[in-house]
Amino acid sequence: MVASALLNSTKSINLTQCMKVLVTQNRSFTSHLNEQQLAVQELARNYTNQYLKPRASQLDLQGRFPFDEIKHITKLGLMGACVDEKYGGLGHDYLSLAIAVEELSRGCASTGMIVSIHNFLYANLVNEQGTPEQKERFLSDFTKGSIGCFALSEPDAGSDVANIKTTARRDGDYWILNGKKSWVTSAVEGSATAVFATFDPELRHKGLACFLVPLDAEGVFRGKKEPLMGVSSGHRAATACDLTLDDVRLPASCLLGQAGDGFRIAMRQLDQGRIGIAAHAVGIAQASLDTAIAYAKERVAFGRSLTALPSVKDRLADMCILVESARLLTWRAAAHVHSKHSAMAKYAAGRAAAAAAAHCVQVLGGRGLSTRYDAERHYRDARGTQIYGGVADVQKRLVGHFLLKEHDAL
Length: 410
Ligand SMILES: Cc1cc2nc3c(=O)[nH]c(=O)nc-3n(C[C@H](O)[C@H](O)[C@H](O)COP(=O)(O)OP(=O)(O)OC[C@H]3O[C@@H](n4cnc5c(N)ncnc54)[C@H](O)[C@@H]3O)c2cc1C
Known about the structure:
Layout: H1 2-9, H2 15-24, H3 35-62, H4 67-75, H5 94-107, H6 109-129, H7 132-138, E1 148-151, E2 167-171, E3 174-185, E4 192-198, E5 208-214, E6 220-222, E7 240-251, E8 255-256, H8 262-298, E9 300-301, E10 304-305, H9 310-335, H10 339-363, H11 375-384, H12 392-406
Parallel strand pairs: 1-4
Antiparallel strand pairs: 2-3, 3-7, 4-5, 5-8, 6-7, 9-10
Helix pairs in contact: 3-5, 5-6, 5-8, 5-9, 6-8, 8-9, 8-10, 8-11, 9-10, 10-11, 10-12
């Protein structure tokens, strides 16, 4: 109805312009969850409340990878939430997965991050782009306990993806990979990774290809766990490391798509990956709000609980607005995947997590800095969500690009 009314009222403009108006005014998103999404939310919420949340502080303080927790989450089906049932997955939609990642991240940000990257950047990629042979080899085991990774970043290529230096050389029925990847999440524990490499550096982004690489292949060397300590970084229980590829010989069947498709594959998958990091950030923001409210109710100052202080009430209200607006953008991005939606959700959710965690530390006062309380962990965990999966500055530029494109103003 809205569409026909708009079409009638715009007889003087041409159809292309009209469709652009329809796209920008699309209001079809609903925040109501369907039965499947509600069921996943309850499943992840119960597991988080009963098992994950009580263990998160110890996992973080000891910097221990959550092996048992990931095993349990695998049994719940959440390490293949969107993967076809034929390959051991649940066959659910992205919104269900985003909701699960939010709930898990609310309990333990490290675990939420591992689940987010495994699903959105590896399992969904192979599920959607892989050949049947690739799915048998690189997906079936990955819904049953093996962990998958995504190796795009390099020492000299983070935001600037087209500057990738890792090379892929064709040799008969094989490809030979050489180079170095940085910051590969879960590569210390993982079994396979997507690797992006150039077969012709002069072609820049058009010269990229994507390969599926077993992490035990000859010539693959995993670096040490990157130390993520100190105030500016969190996720101590998750891991990231360098990967060195030294004459790694892969059969041509490990090439995902065609040579030259690598940049398109990376960008498309990052649109999904950003939904995953946004959901992860919403979980951290919600955890910060929960921690702050619980403390403010108990703590007495000037003869009353902190919740009676207008400034604390204002902080809690700010946090609530940040969490809920970020959640809506994230759900919208998961329901309608588009680069602008994903970038906007990641940008807003990362800022919401950082701001909510800072409020949380402030509400707890001196205890906000103590490792006996959760606030400082949320503060460290929140920071990274504005960096990995694409830095906040670039997300904002992407939003501006797509906004102006919609308005023919580029
Ligand atoms: C804990 C952790 C886990 C990670 N996991 C993975 C992973 O699993 N796989 C993977 O491939 N990578 C991973 N990364 C890498 C991550 O995605 C990159 O760090 C990120 O994309 C930024 O790249 P960079 O660090 O090279 O920063 P740079 O690209 O050098 O950017 C540095 C700063 O420069 C500015 N900047 C750069 N370019 C622009 C631009 N175009 N517009 C505006 N400002 C700009 C921004 O302020 C930015 O913050 C991980 C990183 C961390 C910290």
